[in-house]
């Protein structure tokens, strides 16, 4: 009999020290987004963020090496990979990714909808943020490769999973940019489904 997979909800709650870290991280991110909304990205400094979050500038840098990291870093990568590992072994990779992405987006849009929209907009409007987002996709793609390797038995460092994971991440980044560029007109979850359809089935038929 196959042992039941562990789900993210099965994990023990964080201890006091970890809760304090989470609280500080959230305070820094919240201060950053509030200041950016008030005065713009370029005008917002680390000193202002620290003052608003009621921490020292060194504390800000301890949690986030750069201002761009405050915008780019979130809590979804470990949650998404844990959710991916918990899916049934016979589920197709496309269905796995649809489930994981929709769950993450549902939670993100429920907890911080304005922040989710702002991050997407900054990724389009601020070159430094866009560049950092591009860099961060490599780290997320590695997590995705490792999780998919466990499911498929493929080599996580082989070209197949490398190409696949970066294709997924590149597609998700383009969806985010499209969403922001069109004024968040569409449901981001539907756009992600369309992106995964392209990866699974190829481009739709064009004009004859």
Ranges where pLDDT stays below 50 over 5 or more residues in a row are: none
Which range does the strand content fall in?
A: under 5%
Assembly annotation: single chain
Q: Which series of helices and strands comes N to C?
A: HHHHHHHHHH
User: Which percent bin holds the helix content?
Assistant: over 70%
Structural class: mainly alpha
Key features?
globular, 73% helix, 208 residues
Quick recap:
With 208 residues, this protein is mainly alpha-helical. The protein has ten helices and no strands. The chain starts with 15 loop residues before the first helix and ends in a 7-residue tail after the last helix.
Structure in words:
The protein is mostly helical and 208 residues long. The chain is 73% helix and 0% strand. The chain contains ten helices and no strands. The protein is globular. The model has no long low-confidence stretch (mean pLDDT 88).
Explain the layout of strands and helices.
Layout: H1 16-39, H2 46-53, H3 57-63, H4 67-72, H5 76-86, H6 93-111, H7 113-125, H8 127-152, H9 159-181, H10 188-201
Helix pairs in contact: 1-2, 2-3, 5-6, 5-8, 6-10, 7-8, 7-9, 8-9, 9-10
